[in-house]
Task: structure prediction
Amino acid sequence: MGDLTDSLLAFAILFAVFLPLERLLPAHRQKVIRKEWGTDLLFFFGQYLLWTGPVVAALVFVQQHVDMLPLGDLRAFVAAQPFWLQVLGVILLCDVSIYWAHRWSHTNKFLWRFHRVHHTAERLDWIAAYREHPFDNLYTRLVENLPAIILGFPLPALAGFAVFRGLWALYIHSNVRLTPGPLRYVLGAPRLHHWHHEVDKGGHVNFANVSPLMDLLFGTYHDPGEMPERYGVRAPVRHDYVSQLVQPLLPDRK
Ligand SMILES: [Zn+2]
Ligand SMILES: [Zn+2]
Result:
């Protein structure tokens, strides 16, 4: 279980960072306490207090048992590289893994049941990033880190990048119209990920996270130069916190 004081502190810091950004450079005019903000707040505290612990435990378990694989030479080769190259390797490996894991969670019926929760948000801002079913969260964190763990990349590089990736996820969901200008084909931005949440186009474009290179490479890059108007899913699903957690576990209603 996470610590409530740490969670409140994390919330206060993130709120203080994103509030001015979303007020000064808003992508859409919307209230801070917008519709379903309370739901996303519950997802925030749920993730900090309940779900992050099991995810980290699963990753540590994999890391501790990976020696059983016959990859000694490859792992020794990775371990011999300079730290900057290891960091670059972690970024690339994680981004390739997350791209395909994310794409699959839109086409595989079972995975979509859980990933759909993330797409029910009809307004996006930094806290909407936390709207993730715990199983979707576990699946994503495992798949994105698995190749780097198996290949023996050092834990400091993995942990550091995981923290960065968490903050990056908040940034690309935020209600902010910042774009990286000439670097837009190398670095992701809120506009790209907002299109991934668009009610019709979403789910078919912009699966990448930190860099849109994989989207460019596999033809899923989409940037019409403006923010989308409508977000969410067309399927009739309940939006409250408990239903969002329980509904994916129940059989579909006919
Ligand atoms: Zn998202
Ligand atoms: Zn998605």
User: Anything to note?
Assistant: The chain has a mean pLDDT of 89. The pocket of zinc ion (ligand 2) is lined by residues 102, 106, 115, 119, 196 (CB under 6 Å). The first helix runs from residue 4 to 24. The two ends are 37 Å apart (CA to CA).
